[in-house]
Amino acid sequence: MDMLKTVKLHLHNNKPKMAKIHTALIFVYVCSAYFFILACARDVPTNSYTLLGHGDATPTGSNFTFVCDPKRYSSLGLDMTKFPFCDKSLPYDVRASDLVKQMTLSEKVLQLGNTNRGVPRLGLPKYEWWSEALHGVSNVGPGTFFDDLVPSSTSFPTVITSAASFNESLWKTIGQAVSTEARAMYNLGRAGLTYWSPNINVVRDPRWGRAIETPGEDPFVVGKYAANYVRGLQDVEGTENFKDLNSRPLKVSSCCKHYAAYDVDNWKGIVRESYDARVAEQDMVETFLRPFEMCIKEGDVADAAKGPVILVLFSAGGLDIGFAKNNKKIGGILWVGYPGEKGGLAIADVIFGKYNPGGRLPLTWHEASYADMLPMTSMPLRPVDSLGYPGRTYKFFNGSTVYPFAYGLSYTQFNYTLKSAVRSTHIKLNKFQHCYGIKYRAESHIPPCPAVRIDDMDCKEKINFEVEVKNVGDRDGSEVVVVYSKPPEGLDASHIKQVVGFQRVFVPAGGSKKVKFVLNVCNSLRVVDYNAYSVLPSGGHTIVIGDDITSFPVHVNFSG
Ligand SMILES: *[C@@H]1O[C@H](CO)[C@@H](O)[C@H](O)[C@H]1NC(C)=O
Ligand SMILES: *[C@@H]1O[C@H](CO)[C@@H](O)[C@H](O)[C@H]1NC(C)=O
Ligand SMILES: *[C@@H]1O[C@H](CO)[C@@H](O)[C@H](O)[C@H]1NC(C)=O
Ligand SMILES: *[C@@H]1O[C@H](CO)[C@@H](O)[C@H](O)[C@H]1NC(C)=O
């Protein structure tokens, strides 16, 4: 199941009534089909791993690096001109359908799954689709191996750690470096070209160990990570802006995994392969599918010690370290996730003050008691009052935490000043755009036109504003400015707040930087209602910058 993931996802915003779990299944199949066409149609080279095998690896790697190499065909005793799918003058779709047409049913069946058997009579080689590159090319997948010639690849910090930087260009740069190594290994016959990475399952529960593989609990942040990492892996330098996505070359092929709403590996004997995850469409649209959508579109040492102690924590996700927070001997706490191969140096640089950190938590650090309040198998993000379950993630949990989502310190301090900001947006509805009723809590004021469904709107309206970030300390440093939106008061069962933007900026000590945000009104103020419709509610929304100190209201008004 680990290999089941999605590559292409067309979110049916206009069909929110889609079947729940079936949706995820469909994605999986779209994914395999996409790869298949890719391998056949795009001159994706043969996987030389399968040609060579571990035993006979040579220093020069494989003899051939792509399928439709005339020399390869002649070495197989086949006439390549007899196979239109190898004719580069034909469009990809024609070549792909030719290949599929030439295969018998049993030959097709042998190409399903991770390990493709190839079709010798057509010159189609074996191929192992499963390679992994979450934070460096890894031999977890059978499509990749290390040996004397290539003993290792770069191990970057695990994803949850890189996510904490909230630095989009860093995420993309890591993807680029990983795919360069992947290509090099491929050319030497030691890796595949298809990677079951990134893992963009939103972290729903603090007990999930595989949180380490992911960018955290916020669908927007996870989606941004996905978009950057995928572009980093896939783009060939100089071809990033190809309009026709079907002809854009791929450096390697990435795959956003796993099943949406999948994040129970083994909890009290309940395993992911058989667990029946009951997911509301509302949560599916709002939380679990959002990153996929974005992916496609775009130790207790203190007491014994005498002096001050710096607690360095290596962990997949959050831990209840209340004991350390309140221990005066602990002068600092540094969470490093699982850092990459340069982790030791990086930790030293931070502890000794050479580098000023500026990360933020990509997930909530819960108190241990949180895990006693609800079973891991409860899928709803919202609180379940009837069962006494609290909400999940910062968007729906209002209780106390060890550290909240997006918490992070640096050796300096930053102050925000809000500059220009648009405070209201007036949207005139045409005759095809209708007011849509959404649920308000009892005794709340309900506006005459409570909301409009986003599918019905043009969604051109923007909210522009600028935040001046002043470094008021005495160390240069980077600050992550996180922007949230809060829905109008009284709306029933909506999120408390949601991330709608973030930027990491470097500001020298004593200096300041203006950070500009342009938010799309529909994307940033939307609410997913009980029927899983994305709607724009009218009334008083709030844009919050960082903690609650800086904020401004945005009024949405509809008229006929
Ligand atoms: C590569 O070519 C050499 C020389 O032509 C041949 O002996 C060898 O078997 C080939 N290896 C593979 C994996 O095809
Ligand atoms: C973001 O990461 C890049 C590396 O890709 C680095 O050069 C840059 O300084 C980082 N930005 C900030 C503001 O820290
Ligand atoms: C916090 O959430 C709980 C549901 O988990 C709810 O009963 C309670 O009213 C909320 N408290 C506040 C202050 O919003
Ligand atoms: C920065 O903000 C804090 C809290 O808002 C305030 O106490 C402090 O005086 C500000 N410092 C500067 C230099 O503006």
From TrEMBL:
Protein's name according to its UniProt entry: Fibronectin type III-like domain-containing protein
SUPFAM superfamilies found in the cross-reference section: (Trans)glycosidases, Beta-D-glucan exohydrolase, C-terminal domain
Entry keyword annotation includes rRNA-binding: no
Keywords, alphabetical: Glycosidase, Hydrolase, Membrane, Signal, Transmembrane, Transmembrane helix
Classification via InterPro entries: BXL, Fn3-like, GH, Glyco_hydro_3_C, Glyco_hydro_3_C_sf, Glyco_hydro_3_N, Glyco_hydro_3_N_sf, Ig-like_fold
This protein's record includes keyword Transmembrane: yes
Domain Fibronectin type III-like residues, every copy: 479-549
GO molecular function, one term: alpha-L-arabinofuranosidase activity
Transmembrane segments: 21-39
Pfam families registered for this protein in UniProt: Fn3-like (PF14310), Glyco_hydro_3 (PF00933), Glyco_hydro_3_C (PF01915)
Highest rank taxon of the organism: Eukaryota
GO terms under biological process: arabinan catabolic process; xylan catabolic process
